[in-house]
């Protein structure tokens, strides 16, 4: 243990930029980015499932509002959505006195709300595509067994739709990680925020940004391997069988 | 391989030509981070104005060159100078040793203290580790105020860093920030004159220690443009001599 810390100190001894203090900022950034992306993805996923079912509904009055929502959130840049939610809300008169203010006051929650709504919109569309692609044969078979609409949705359509959506959803997760880089414009000290801080303080763009790019790469690798593992597990039935 | 050699020789030739040209400017591009009232901002008509702008234009006129203002966000303003997006920076930049390793400064053309600004409801008379404990402090990212606050208060308070002073003032009005640390005149024109709420200066104006607050604002040049810096220094001395400087100063800060 002592060896490692001595080695680490040696490693840091000869440079001005990567001191324990700035590495602390990067660490803080890593934690913030991970929290932000993870929580918004989980919340987005939970929102997206019912929305996708509504979006696939035959009734216009159910599917149209969801369509409008996904159209708006996929049709505008995430940065603009973040600005509107973070800076826009303060122009609502008396917002400071409402119970919402403790939440909106912090930079973290407006960013989380913007990211969640954005990823939920994309995920809804991914799931809708997967639900639509359910083969007619499966549905007819389910009906032949006398399954109700609900039961069929729960047992047949959704499980196979999730599997079909998996590769596309893996992409969405990676996009979300990279999109989270804009969180620093609303003062959040995320990974990019830490890099911008180091850059502005030491005027060293290459060191600051290459280092943070390497961290993003590692995170992306972790996500890639997680999804590859999931696909292996869940899509096993699609692989050619070795007899 | 041969092609590569030709290309790199060509590159060298271009570099040599431009560095020869660099000694003799007839058009000086000046980098500036807008808005930073009253030093540099836009009027309602969209016209660039402010103390830096007026003084910079007067200096260029005196030297006999044309000035072109190039807008650049603060946290990339020194790298922008290095990568030749412009030839000088005149943007309320405090002279200090850290920056001096990167750029060549003119003589200071104005000295400006920093100060703490807070809503009167905050009700503290002095900013120190005790009174700031648990508060959220706003600063502009990469400024000397950022360095000062980061080094002295990051263990007791939360620090929010902004790209522009405007965003920071907006969040102050939104009550997301408890207190901000700014160049005094900037806080004066953006916060003290604000109609939104009542703001006060907390404690004395601060310009010590010098390792943070430097020696005043200077115009920054690339290290090797010594001749250009010298021209600006001479012109500055002349303007201070003949009263032009005082006139511009009075336009933005009132009579001394």
TrEMBL record, chain A:
Keywords, in A-Z order: Amino-acid transport, Cell inner membrane, Cell membrane, Membrane, Transmembrane, Transmembrane helix, Transport
Q: Where are the transmembrane segments?
A: 36-54, 66-87, 107-127, 173-197, 209-230
Any one GO biological process = amino acid transport
Instruction: List localization entries.
Output: Cell inner membrane; Cell membrane
For membrane topology, the record states: Multi-pass membrane protein
Gene3D superfamilies in the record: MetI-like
InterPro entries xrefs: AA_ABC_transptr_permease_3TM, ArtM/GltK/GlnP/TcyL/YhdX-like, MetI-like, MetI-like_sf
SUPFAM superfamilies this protein is in? MetI-like (SSF161098)
Q: Which GO terms describe its cellular component?
A: ATP-binding cassette (ABC) transporter complex
- Where is the ABC transmembrane type-1 domain positioned along the sequence? 30-227
Q: Name one GO molecular function term.
A: transmembrane transporter activity
Could you tell me which Pfam families the record lists for this protein? Answer: BPD_transp_1
The similarity comment for this entry is: Belongs to the binding-protein-dependent transport system permease family. HisMQ subfamily.
> NCBIfam families annotated for this entry?
HEQRo_perm_3TM (TIGR01726)
Name of this chain's protein: Arginine ABC transporter permease protein ArtM
Gene encoding this polypeptide? aotM
TrEMBL record, chain B:
* Keyword Signal set for record: yes
Matches recorded under Gene3D superfamilies: Periplasmic binding protein-like II
Q: Does the keyword Signal apply?
A: yes
Give the principal location in a single coarse category: other
Location in or out of the cell: Cell envelope
PROSITE patterns in the record = SBP_BACTERIAL_3
Q: Which family does it belong to?
A: Belongs to the bacterial solute-binding protein 3 family.
What is the protein named? Amino acid ABC transporter substrate-binding protein, PAAT family
Which species expresses this protein natively?
Answer: Vreelandella aquamarina
Q: What is the lineage of its organism?
A: Bacteria, Pseudomonadati, Pseudomonadota, Gammaproteobacteria, Oceanospirillales
């Amino acid at each position: 243990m002592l060896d490692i810390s001595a080695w680490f100190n040696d490693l840091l001894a000869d440079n001005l930029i990567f001191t324990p203090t700035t590495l602390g900022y990067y660490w803080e950034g890593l934690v913030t980015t991970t929290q932000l992306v993870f929580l918004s993805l989980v919340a987005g996923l939970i929102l997206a499932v019912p929305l996708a079912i509504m979006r696939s509904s035959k009734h216009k009055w159910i599917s149209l509002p969801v369509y409008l929502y996904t159209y708006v959130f996929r049709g505008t840049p995430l940065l603009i959505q973040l600005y509107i939610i973070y800076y826009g809300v303060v122009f609502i008169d008396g917002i400071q006195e409402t119970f919402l203010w403790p939440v909106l006051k912090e930079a973290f929650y407006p960013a989380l709300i913007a990211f969640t709504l954005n990823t939920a919109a994309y995920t809804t569309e991914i799931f809708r595509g997967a639900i639509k692609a359910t083969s007619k044969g499966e549905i007819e078979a389910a009906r032949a067994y006398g399954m109700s609409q609900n039961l069929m949705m729960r047992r047949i359509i959704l499980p196979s739709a999730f599997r079909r959506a998996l590769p596309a959803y893996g992409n969405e997760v990676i996009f979300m990680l990279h999109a989270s880089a804009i969180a620093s414009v609303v003062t959040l000290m995320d990974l990019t925020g830490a890099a911008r801080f180091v850059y502005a303080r030491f005027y060293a763009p290459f060191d600051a940004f290459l280092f943070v790019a390497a961290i993003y790469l590692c995170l992306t690798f972790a996500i890639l391997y997680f999804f590859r593992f999931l696909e292996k597990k869940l899509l096993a039935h699609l692989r050619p069988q070795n007899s | 391989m041969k092609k590569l050699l030709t290309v790199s020789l060509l590159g060298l030739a271009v570099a040599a030509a431009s560095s020869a040209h660099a000694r003799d400017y007839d058009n000086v591009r000046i980098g500036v981070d807008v808005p930073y009232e009253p030093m540099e901002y836009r009027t309602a008509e969209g016209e660039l104005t402010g103390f830096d702008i007026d003084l910079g234009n007067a200096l260029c006129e005196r030297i006999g060159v044309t000035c072109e203002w190039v807008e650049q966000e603060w946290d990339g303003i020194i790298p922008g100078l290095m990568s030749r997006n412009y030839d000088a920076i005149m943007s309320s930049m405090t002279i200090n040793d850290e920056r001096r390793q990167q750029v060549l400064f003119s003589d200071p053309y104005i000295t400006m203290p920093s100060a703490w600004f807070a809503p009167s409801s905050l009700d503290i008379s002095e900013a120190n580790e005790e009174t700031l404990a648990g508060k959220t402090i706003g600063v502009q990212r990469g400024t000397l105020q950022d360095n000062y606050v980061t080094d002295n208060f990051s263990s007791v308070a939360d620090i929010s860093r902004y790209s522009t002073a405007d965003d920071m003032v907006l969040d102050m009005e939104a009550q997301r920030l408890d207190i901000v640390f700014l160049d005094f005149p900037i806080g004066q024109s953006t916060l003290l004159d604000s109609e939104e709420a009542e703001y006060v200066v907390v404690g004395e104006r601060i310009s010590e220690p010098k390792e943070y607050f430097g020696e005043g604002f200077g115009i920054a040049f690339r290290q090797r443009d010594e001749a250009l810096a010298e021209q600006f220094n001479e012109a500055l001395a002349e303007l201070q001599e003949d009263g032009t400087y005082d006139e511009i100063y009075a336009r933005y800060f009132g009579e001394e």
